[in-house]
Structures are given as C-alpha cells and as structure tokens.
From TrEMBL:
Belongs to the MqnA/MqnD family. MqnA subfamily. Pathway: Quinol/quinone metabolism; menaquinone biosynthesis. It catalyses: chorismate = 3-[(1-carboxyvinyl)-oxy]benzoate + H2O. Keywords: Lyase, Menaquinone biosynthesis. It comes from the Bacteria. This is Chorismate dehydratase. InterPro entries: Menaquinone_biosynth, MqnA. Catalyzes the dehydration of chorismate into 3-[(1-carboxyvinyl)oxy]benzoate, a step in the biosynthesis of menaquinone (MK, vitamin K2). GO terms for molecular function: hydro-lyase activity. GO terms for biological process: menaquinone biosynthetic process. The gene is mqnA.
Length: 286
C-alpha cells in the first residue's frame, strides 16, 4: 500500500489502558494515523491479520504470534498484586468450584489461561470450562463460577453482594511472588521497518502519556467516575495499583506465565521476546 497510507493503531477498549492513551494524539504525528478502540479479542485478531500496525494486545495473543511482533519497551498493563478487573466470581464454595464448571469470558485469552494455570498448578484441579459472553447473571446460571475481565468485572464487583470474589492478579502474586502482565504494546515487524520515524513518535507519545497520566491522576479519575460510575476514591486506587512499565519484574512474571502455558499445552512453543528500538533493530532479551 506504500508509505502514504495511514498507520493503524489499536487501543484496548478498557479503562486499565487509559494512562497510555489518554494524552496520545494521532494528529500530532508527522504522518497520518488512525486509532481504533476494540475489546482485546478483536484487537488481537486485527493485529495478527495485518489490519493494524501497532496495538495494545493481550499478553497471550502476543505469545501466539511473537515471531511477527516487536514489543514496545517500558509499556504494559501489569499488576504486582491486586488488579481489580480480572475477577473470578464464585456462586458455590471454592472446593465445589474446583470440581465443577467455570464460565469464561470470551473477550481475552490472557486471563482465561491465567485462570487455567492457577487451577491446574496452584489448586491442582481440573474444572470444566465454558466460554460465554460477559454477563455475570447468565454465566452463573450455567456454571458454579464466572471469570470476568475489564470494565465488565469492575461493574459486577460493585453490584455483587452474593458471591465470593477472587482477584487473579492478587492470587498470582501471592503464589509466585511475581507481578502479572496482562497487556503489552506490540508493533508488526514490517510496520516497524516501513515506518521507523512515525513508530518512534508513537512510542514517545505513549511514554509521555503514561508519565503525565500517572503524575496527575485526577483527569482519569474524573473521566472514569463520569463514564463508568463509581466513587473517585475507587478509581484513584484502581489506577494507582496498576503498573504501566515493563521492567525486569514484569518480564520475569510474564516469562513464568509463558512457561506454565507451554507446560500445560496452552502454547505450543517457547516465547522469545523481541523489542522494538528507535534504531529499528530488534533487541532480544537475554
């Protein structure tokens, strides 16, 4: 299509990625760009099929197609404990859930496979799974527990008065001692080679947006309260407990997650993470 086509950028349509995108402005780039907001599963597919050049995608989707992507350094959606939006709602006691049925959200594979890893390795259990649209009431009509993620999980946690809730980020950290990275920013290798300058601008804007957002959370807190409801104190804690870097701690936790996924047959290959750099050279993590 040539270098005159617009760069296509995918944005996860969840609150947890707001700090990276809040101050991002594609109109300030030196070339044309389009931003598309979707749930993780749709962004994952669009990047894989080349409909997007760069996107915030789920960590598991990155693992599946790592050979085609470069990761943008210092950017992720991670938690070093409670994540608040990856939640397992239990209709029955945990010991019954472990031998029962769990309804899984159909919007992201990362959290679904995190749950399967936890169930197998931490609880040493093998429940049945059924994938459904993210509606807590309907999911729990058909199952003993339900996994919700993102804004659906947040809203359900506010209205829930009947069910025990397990935060998977908190449980993963308590079990492994590591944080968990739920989403990364990936760029297709051919786009990085074809558009090095504008990709560098995008990366710079993402980093600047992250820094500015986290230094002054009030605009994000106000926006979340107005658009999704909830008290400002909730959103202040929510954004403060997430981590948006991708340093050694996040990388180690993600490496462990990928290793468990490979051992359980959820992945059919080992993941060799490669990073984008502003010299357009992949830096392989040692």
């Amino acid at each position: 299509m040539g270098n005159n086509r617009p760069i296509t950028i995918g944005r996860i349509d969840y609150t947890n990625v707001w700090p990276i995108f809040h101050y991002f402005d594609e109109k300030r780039l030196s070339g044309r760009a389009e931003v598309l907001s979707r749930v993780p599963s749709l962004l994952n597919r669009a990047l894989r099929e080349g409909e997007l050049d760069i996107a915030a995608i789920s960590s598991f989707a990155y693992a599946h197609n790592a050979q085609d992507y470069l990761l943008m350094p210092d950017l992720s959606v991670s938690a070093r404990g409670r994540v608040n939006s990856i939640l397992l709602f239990l209709k029955k006691p945990l010991n019954e859930v472990l031998n029962g049925k769990i309804a899984l959200t159909d919007t992201s594979a990362t959290s679904v496979n995190l749950l399967k890893i936890i169930m197998n390795r931490y609880f040493q259990a093998s429940p049945q799974y059924e994938t459904m649209e993210p509606s807590l009431d309907k999911m729990l009509e058909a199952a003993d527990a339900a996994l919700l993620i993102g804004d659906s999980a947040i809203r359900a946690s506010w209205s829930n008065t009947a069910y025990e809730v397990i935060d998977l980020g908190e449980l993963w950290h308590r079990w492994t001692g590591y944080g968990m990275t739920f989403a990364v920013i990936a760029v297709r290798k051919e786009a990085a080679a074809q558009f090095p300058d504008i990709i560098a601008e995008i990366h710079g804007q993402f980093l600047a947006s992250k820094q500015r957002s986290l230094q002054h959370l009030a605009p994000l807190v106000d926006k979340a309260s107005q658009e999704l409801g909830g008290e400002p104190a909730y959103w202040q804690r929510y954004f403060s407990e997430l981590h948006y870097d991708f340093g050694a701690q996040e990388q180690a936790g993600l490496d462990l997650y990928f290793r468990y996924a490979k051992e359980l047959g959820l992945l059919d290959h080992e993941v060799d993470i490669q990073y984008w750099s502003d010299q357009s050279v992949a830096q392989v993590k040692e």
